[in-house]
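step=encode ok
step=design start
structure_in=
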């Protein structure tokens, strides 16, 4: 199996790490993700990961319950650091060299995010995990994924989800929901489809950065996406 991309950004939601639990981190899921990433690295792909924190705390949810939005978002950013450290641990147990770079400085836990440092780590074959979101409230980790991918010159964003692509509505709730094989950025924005938030989609559109949305639950799908196999939904020009 050959790689179709040299450098990619994998976007993982915090919820992806909780598996079937309602909260926290499922270590079986972590192990599965680590094994898949090791297989991807064996292809010679330069891989960066942006991870969310929704399995621990979601800023938007906190703000809807009366919490100050900025404070809630900062708490969500800290949750992404917890997830990043957990994923780093799982990867290194599988022999994958990893660096966590945080947009919020916490030197005892992670390196500060510096664009050139991140690119150098990738060139040296290390997996880079971006934590702390953008370092600013009011921006999601989807936007972080788009921003970091553009900054480091990634060729694609791989958006790992719980379903096998983008649908016209929630396929869990609507059995007649239509799956899209491919979409244009403007269609995603006009239809209000839940691929990534509007800021992230606009960034990708302005910089012609494709997005592949696929099911993380099926083992081997990350490798298939990196190898250019037809999988999930592709969003581009």
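sequence_out=
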């Amino acid at each position: 199996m050959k790689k179709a991309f040299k450098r990619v950004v994998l976007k993982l939601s915090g919820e992806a790490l909780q598996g079937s639990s309602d909260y926290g981190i499922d270590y079986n899921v972590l192990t599965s993700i680590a094994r898949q990433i090791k297989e991807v690295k064996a292809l010679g792909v330069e891989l960066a990961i942006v991870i969310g924190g929704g399995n621990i705390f979601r800023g938007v949810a906190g703000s809807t319950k009366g919490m100050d939005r900025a404070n809630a978002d900062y708490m969500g950013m800290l949750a992404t650091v917890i997830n990043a450290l957990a994923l780093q641990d799982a990867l290194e147990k599988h022999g994958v060299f990893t660096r966590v770079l945080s947009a919020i400085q916490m030197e005892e836990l992670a390196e500060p995010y510096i664009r050139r440092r991140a690119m150098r780590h990738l060139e040296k074959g290390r997996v880079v995990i971006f934590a702390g979101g953008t370092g600013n409230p009011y921006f999601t980790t989807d936007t972080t994924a788009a921003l970091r991918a553009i900054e480091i010159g990634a060729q694609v964003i791989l958006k790992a989800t719980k379903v096998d692509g983008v649908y016209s509505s929630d396929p869990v709730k609507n059995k007649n929901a239509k799956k899209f094989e491919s979409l244009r950025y403007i269609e995603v924005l006009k239809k209000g489809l839940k691929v990534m938030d509007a800021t992230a989609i606009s960034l990708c559109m302005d910089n012609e950065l494709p997005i592949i949305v696929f099911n993380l639950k099926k083992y081997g799908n990350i490798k298939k996406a990196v190898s250019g196999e037809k999988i999930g939904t592709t969003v581009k020009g």
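step=design ok
step=annotate ok -> DSSP finds nine helices and eleven strands in the chain.
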